[in-house]
Structures are given as structure tokens and as C-alpha cells.
Amino acid sequence: MSSGTMANGSAAPITHGDLREFPADPAACLMKLYRKHGPLAQLRAEDGMALTFVFSPELNRTVLSDGKRFHSKFFAIRGGRKSAQRRVTSGLLTMNGPDHKRHRRMVMEPFSKKIMPAYHEAIAELTGELLDGWEPGSTVDLHEEMNGYMRKLTSAILFGLDDPELAYRTGEKIDRWVHLNHETGMGAMVSDEGFLDSYDELLDLADSLEGDIQAMITARRGQPPTRDVLSILIDAAEKDPEGGGITDMELIGHVTLLFAAAHLTTAHSLTWTMFLLAQHPEVAQALAAEVAEGVAGDAATPGEADALPLLDRVIKESMRCLPASGYSQRLTAETVELGPLTLPPGSPVIFSQYVTHHMPDLYPDPMPFKPERWEDLKPPSYGYIPFGSGPRLCLGAMLAMTVLKTVIPSVMKRYRLSCEADSTVNAKIVSTMLGPITPVPMEIHPADGQWQHRPVHGNVNTLVDLNHTHAPAMRKAA
Fold first, then answer.
1. Count of CB atoms within 10 A of residue 130's CB?
2. Which end of the chain is more exposed for a tag (fewer CB within 10 A), N or C?
3. Is 60 exposed, middle or buried (0-12, 13-18, 19+ CB in 10 A)?
4. What is the CA radius of gyration of the chain?
5. In what helix (H) or strand (E) does residue 328 lie, and over which residues does it extend?
6. What does the alpha-carbon distance between residue 55 and residue 67 come to, in Å, rounded to a whole number?
7. The pTM is what?
8. CA atoms within 13 A on the CB side of 473
């Protein structure tokens, strides 16, 4: 790759190279561009196609707070106008302007604070079922365990359990559909036909997915509302004070994208947090003590969870070190000036949670996992963005935190986890999400307090410093 030069001869924040370097290893490409150019960078191909990257809180604010100039277009492949793929992608992540504002107001209802207690019972019940299946002395793939758990939980919360088989089957289809969208969509972004091999499968899966969700919508209509997201959305649409409601096509798009956004990101956050605890025995020991003192039953109540300060710091630091969303993007809706760069309409602009969370001026010594930094740390607005920020702040942020603050204490009360000796853990940003691409083998032990660090191999060591040793003074929980 080579750097660019501005018309006046000064160095431009441009690297000339192959755009396929970005999807090949997004985290490495993002960090290379940041280290080379600073808070604003552009990767430009010979044909003029370019990807522009912003990393600083100030530039994040510019892009994330201005919905007029920077539009969301989450899916590169939306299919023909009359295709099921077009309909299942017609949710909030592809809406802009007044449509987005009106629909977001309605879709917010099932994710409001008053609704969270209704989901806690399902979270606690499915967590208990998961942990009942673990046995001391056994080894589990933590990544697969958390994926399976979140498929069930997200299916239950979004679709209810009147027909659990249909709900779970639909969740598994959405999981596969998300991955196919990544494979085909990245091909559109970088003009590589090799990525488009799965296009026909994507369209077929969208057809099947639409049929399943439409069947659930039809079954719900006319029935007493239940406390799942689909029922709440149907009810909200019918009572829309502004009129217009939500069409079935839009409803299908909303629930599909809500599942896609909630399932893998929370599964990755659960995996990474428990993995990091297993790698940092002094933190795990302190958290286990806090949980033992502050949680009376098998699962923390919402009130108990909110009164665990170390748990809060652990989750914040986990989502800083290994954010489930590694990057996301916007498209310019008009000509935009970003620093010395002039971006024509339709230009992709990428912001990265992973890079922003590793900027040394925001987070001194950013590579190690150090929950104690959050005892005093107050990052600037748009400087800590695990759930994004601005008018498109993740709707499911509160639900994700409820899941994390229920599952992690439950695990800590019942078990001690340790990484399998000499295991290899590799990670990659796929479909914008930073997650494991190998198993995460975890040994299950009784909750005996004997936490121990076991070195692991793999590129996860390039994303977070797991060999950093420190003995922080853990403040006693208030």
C-alpha cells in the first residue's frame, strides 16, 4: 500500500491499496490505518473506490449525530424490489429521516425500562437450564454455549414460546441469514464476484424466513397480547397515535433485524467477558466474592445486579477491550467534507468501536484488561461506544446489559471457569461483529475460588494483552 498526497503537496490521510484488505482482517486493517494516519483515514483503490474511516470521539460525533448527511444502509445486498430479501431487510437499520424517527419510536416500546422485568424471568430460567447442563470436570466450547443460549433467549423474547419449535427454528435461520448477508454484502462493497457465490442461497433463505415470521404475525393477531417483542410491536402498531402503523413487511423487517442485532452481539459479549475473567484470576476472585455477598438466589434480581459495582466495571472493560461490534458504517447522503477529504454522495464511512476503545489518549495503556480503570475513568461523549451513540443508539442496549448482569453472576455462583491449557483462540470481525472464529474451550470446576491464569495461543493475543500481570487493589463493593 502507498500513501496519498494532497494537491498542495501535504500528506493526505489516504492509503492506496486493495480494498479487500479490509474484509480479510478488519481489526488489523483498522489499526494499521489509525497508526499511520490518526483519527481520519481513507483506503483507496486504483479505480477510485474508497472506504473512509473515522476513529476519534469528535469525528464519531460528526458521523453518528448527523442523520441527514450520514445515512444508515446496513445491507449491501437487498435483492429485487419484490423479493423477500428486500422485505426482511426493511427494518430500522435501513430506514432514514422521518420514517426512521417514527418507526424507532414504536420499536422502542418493547425495549423500554418498564418492560425489562417481564424479560427477567425468561433470562433467569434459560440461564438455569444452560448451567444445569454443565458438569464439573467437563470442558465446553464457551463460544458455542453462549451462541446456543442467545439463540434460545432471543427467540423467546422476540417471538414468545407459544410455539417454541417454530421460534427456535426461525432464530437459527436468522443466524445463517446474517452470515450469508456478510458473505454477499462484502462482495458488493469491494466488487469481488467471489463473494457472491452464496447469493441464491441468501434469497431462498429470505423466502423461508419471511414465511415463518408471517405465520407468527398471523397467529398473534386477534389474540390477547403477550410480553414478547412481536406481540408488543403488533399492539404498538395498531395503536400508533400518528397513524400509518407498521405494515407486515416492515414488521417482518423489524423483528428480523432486531434478532440479528441482539443475538450474536450479546453472545460475543458473554463469551469475551467470561473468557477475560478466566484469564484474570485476581479480578474473577474479587467478582466471585462480590456476587456471593450481594446475590441471594441462583440468579441476580435486577436490583441485586445493579448493586454490584465490580460487575459493572468488568462488563464495561470487557466491552472496551473486545467490543462485540468491531465497526459499523454510514453512507454519505450528499457531498461531505471530512477534514481534507471530499466525499461524494454514496461514500461509505466506517467508524470503529475497537479502534476508538484502544486510543491511548482516551484509555492509557489500552491493551490490558483493567476493570479498575473504570473507578475514576469518564471517557468523553462518543469516546466509549459499545452500543453506538446518537439517534441510532442501540435499542437493545438495556436488554443486553440485563442479560449480562443476570448470566455472569449466575455462572460465578455455581462454577469456576478455566481456559483449557494450551488452547488456541482466534477472533475476527465478521459481519461487523468481533467474535471467536475458533472454539473457546473452557473447563468447568466447582465454585472453589481457585481461579488461575492459563496462557492461550491464537490471534486473540493481538487484540488484548492477556499476559499483562498486575495486582490491582480491588475496592470493596459498596
1. 19
2. C
3. buried
4. 22
5. strand 328-332
6. 18
7. 0.90
8. 1
